[in-house]
Structures are given as structure tokens and as C-alpha cells.
Design goal:
Blueprint (H helix, E strand, L loop, with lengths): L4 H10 L7 E5 L2 E6 L2 E7 L2 E5 L5 H6 L4 E4 L4 E7 L2 H5 L1 H19 L1
Antiparallel strand pairs: 1-2, 2-3, 3-4, 4-6, 5-6
Length: 108
């Protein structure tokens, strides 16, 4: 699942209000890291952020669902970012911050 470079640039630009983002190519996609922790991913042309019990309701209210791996036959804690959030850099920074906080909690 290759990642379109133009889409990757767009995602990074939209995250500009969030802070520094490190990109790591992995498993045919892109892992998005902040301060050494993965908080998001891009697979194909789909941008997802990390979700836990603290921010899951935000995604559910927007009708979003978790990523499901057919290969592993299970869901993963990354949910597609709603388009209205993606288009608003300030709102996206808030969602990315909550996803980074989920990554911090998971690390503990």
C-alpha cells in the first residue's frame, strides 16, 4: 500500500500547528511520530490518528471506525481522521495532541 507523496506533503502541512512530526516508512505505509512516539499513520491515501478510551468518542461522534487489518483479523487503535477536522489545521492540532497523549499513556 504505497503512499502518495503529494498526500503525505498535504498531511504534514495540515499538521503544521501541531508541532514537529517525524516520518518513518514502515509496512508499506508511513508512521507519524512526535517526540519519539507514533501518534498517527498513513496507509494509501488514508490518514489515521491513534485512539484510546480518552478520545474514541470524538471519532465515534463523527461516524468514524477503527482501522481493521484483514491480515491480522483484528482492529487497530488508529482511526481515520474526519475530513472536516483534517481541513482545519487548528482543530487537527487538537486531535493530534490527544492522539499523542494516547501514545504517551500506552507507553506507560
Amino acid at each position: 500500500m504505497a503512499v502518495n507523496e503529494e498526500y503525505l506533503k498535504l498531511v504534514i502541512d495540515q499538521l503544521s500547528e501541531f508541532g514537529e512530526v517525524e516520518i518513518k516508512r514502515m509496512f508499506g505505509g508511513i508512521g507519524l511520530f512526535h517526540q519519539g512516539l507514533m501518534f498517527g499513520k498513513i496507509g494509501g491515501d488514508t490518514f489515521r490518528l491513534k485512539v484510546d478510551e480518552h478520545n474514541q468518542a470524538d471519532y465515534e461522534e463523527k461516524g468514524m471506525k477503527p482501522f481493521y487489518s484483514e491480515k491480522k483479523k483484528k482492529g487497530m487503535p488508529y482511526w481515520e481522521v474526519p475530513i472536516d477536522v483534517f481541513k482545519n489545521k487548528t482543530e487537527l492540532a487538537k486531535w493530534a495532541t490527544r492522539s499523542y497523549e494516547a501514545a504517551v499513556r500506552k507507553k506507560k
